[in-house]
Design goal:
By secondary structure, the protein is an alpha/beta fold. It folds into 2 domains: 6-202, 2-enoyl-CoA Hydratase, Chain A, domain 1, CATH 3.90.226; 206-253, Orthogonal Bundle (Lyase 2-enoyl-coa Hydratase, Chain  A, domain 2), CATH 1.10.12. 50% of the residues lie in helices and 15% in strands. The protein has helices at residues 30-45, 67-73, 77-97, 113-119, 147-155, 157-166, 172-178, 190-202, 206-217, 224-239, 242-253; strands spanning 6-11, 14-19, 51-56, 102-106, 109-111, 123-127, 131-133, 170-171, 183-185. Strand 2, helix 1 and strand 3 form a beta-alpha-beta unit. Helix 1 packs parallel to helix 3 (77-97), helix 4 (113-119) packs across helix 5 and helix 9 (206-217) runs antiparallel to helix 10. The protein is globular. It starts with 5 loop residues before the first strand and ends in a 9-residue tail after the last helix. The model has no long low-confidence stretch (mean pLDDT 96).
Length: 262
């Protein structure tokens, strides 16, 4: 696929999306946002992709929005911001609702939209040298990239508010202690650990992962009875799949299951 800002590789069931503009700190301009939307759709539609790994080239994971392009837009900035967020939000929505689990591997700094993008993934691994900052209000803008949705669910409303108003920079350890990310690893082991995790997930029951993700998306919107009914619908639907038959059979045969559903 002819991307300018990204690369996509599919191997061992993992669709690897790499932010590939290190000379520009992997900042999200209009081209990048549109390509992210295309990459997310590609991974969602490709039956070979059973897990997604989002990573970046260079010393920064993502500097957030491309502030240079914002400056150059002058009076057209509101329209540009709508177009940039449209692509970014389309990608994040697809990541959130696709069956395939999405793993983020954050090395260096994730700022603004870069932090939002990373935290919207299902599981976030960060190198010891990673840093996280919201950064939006520092330049007079407000958070996007689903961060006003995902961060309160990860760390609570009060901590989210503090990070968004102060733009405090978090170390990887601080981010993990807050619950913002799942795991901190050595910088030189980040790619290997993230790929290992993505491949393990790719070998799992992809459709069950997808139903689980979508159940969790609505968990704060429903009462307990509604949520339990959705669980009943979901688990019953999975009971009709080959993956469930394989998983139950493997349990009794004391062997590793071979999931192939997509």
């Amino acid at each position: 696929m002819g991307f300018e800002r990204l690369r996509i590789d599919v191997s061992h069931g993992v669709g690897q999306i790499t932010l590939a503009r290190p000379e520009g700190a992997n900042a999200i301009d209009l081209v990048c946002s549109e390509e992210l939307a295309e990459a997310a759709l590609y991974c969602d539609q490709n039956p070979e992709v059973r897990a997604v790994l989002l990573r970046a080239e260079g010393p920064m994971f993502c500097a957030g929005g491309d502030v240079r392009s914002f400056r150059d837009a002058h009076d057209d900035l509101p329209a540009l911001l709508k177009r940039v967020t449209q692509g970014l939000h389309t990608a994040i929505s697809r990541f959130a609702r696709m069956d395939a689990p999405v793993v983020a591997a954050v090395g260096g700094t994730a700022a603004g939209g870069g932090m939002s993008l990373a935290c919207a993934c299902d599981i976030v691994l960060a190198a010891e040298n990673a840093r996280f900052t919201m950064a939006y209000t520092r330049i007079g803008l407000v958070p996007d990239g689903s961060s006003t949705f995902t961060l309160p669910r990860r760390i609570g409303l009060g901590r989210t508010r503090e990070l968004m108003l102060t733009n405090r920079v978090l170390t990887a350890v601080e981010a993990k202690d807050l619950g913002l990310i799942e795991r901190v690893v050595a910088a030189d082991a980040l790619d290997d650990e993230a790929r290992k995790l993505a491949r393990e997930l790719a070998a799992g029951p992809t459709r069950a992962y997808g139903v689980t993700k979508r159940l969790l998306l609505g968990t704060f919107d429903h009462g307990i009875e509604t949520q339990m009914e959705l669980e009943t619908i979901g688990i019953a639907a999975m009971g009709a799949t080959d993956d469930a038959k394989e998983g139950i059979g493997a349990f009794f045969e004391k062997r590793a299951p071979q999931f192939r559903g997509r």
